[in-house]
Amino acid sequence: IAAAVEIWARGPAALPPPREPRTPVLPVEGERNVLITSALPYVNNVPHLGNIIGCVLSADTFARYSRLRGWNTLFVCGTDEYGTATETRALQEGLSPRQLCDRYHALHADIYAWFRISFDHFGRTTTPQQTSIAQDIFQRLLARGFLLQDTLEQLRCERCGRYLADRFVEGTCPSCGYGEARGDQCDRCGKLINAVELQNPQCKLCRGTPVVTPTQHLFLDLPKLEGQLEAWLERTWAAGEWTANARHITRTWLRDGLKPRCITRDLTWGTPVPLDGFRDKVFYVWFDAPIGYLSITANYTEHWERWWKNPQQ
């Protein structure tokens, strides 16, 4: 406190000169290097104040603080563009998913610029770099035995002639009875569910009643990772940097035991699965979207690995 009072009394002239901006911003040996990301806003709608306040404003505030401290700071974000919500909205607006994403990406970028959010780079997840990095991670998981192949019971709408991905289905939650639960999660109780578990399911496209049909999919073998994950969590929980809510949800998943998680979908709008027998499928958005942080950085600089694979700096 005494040091802060002294610096305040000396005024702005006592501050070190502002850091000269570099392009691109890359980690520097011997300096404090700070990489800041905020939750990737989904691209199927106009952003609202909740999007601003809930993620990008807090990250922007910290980015400005970091730069004022003279830290070497990179702040990246971008629009999350794959997934069934995009397909659903595109159908509603009579556009292709690409056309819809182009429209809303530009709109998001303009709004954040109006708010003067100080991104070093605002990108998107529908890029060649996203495909390359996501498929590379998939191939590494496959080579190391962390993927399973299994038959999934999936809802198919005969009237539409298509398998229905999670968000193309609505019904009653089998856990709490909420009547508008999605095919991947109930927004009332938060329970993760499979679409076939829904009671009274309906196709969101035609409101017909879908039928359960078997289809082959790939799964991330989470039980194989459970021991390593639990040990890592215990170490990071001890550091005290997790919120109480994050700890509670994670402990609940571990208490019940991790289950294999499906990472493929019967869709066309997404990152293609590079494996024979599955080339008509794409990656599930929750496998694909977090990789967007890496690919957006890769679109900013070809040296993106210096930020993402460089714990020493």
From TrEMBL:
Name the keywords, alphabetized: Aminoacyl-tRNA synthetase, ATP-binding, Cytoplasm, Ligase, Nucleotide-binding, Protein biosynthesis
Known catalytic reactions: tRNA(Met) + L-methionine + ATP = L-methionyl-tRNA(Met) + AMP + diphosphate
Native species of this protein?
Answer: Melospiza melodia
Q: Identify which top EC class this enzyme belongs to.
A: ligase
The record, for PROSITE patterns, names: AA_TRNA_LIGASE_I
What protein family does this chain belong to? Belongs to the class-I aminoacyl-tRNA synthetase family.
- MF (Gene Ontology): ATP binding; methionine-tRNA ligase activity
Methionyl/Leucyl tRNA synthetase domain sequence ranges: 34-311
* Principal localisation: cytoplasm
This chain belongs to which protein, by name?
Methionine--tRNA ligase, cytoplasmic
Q: Give yes or no: UniProt keyword Hydrolase.
A: no
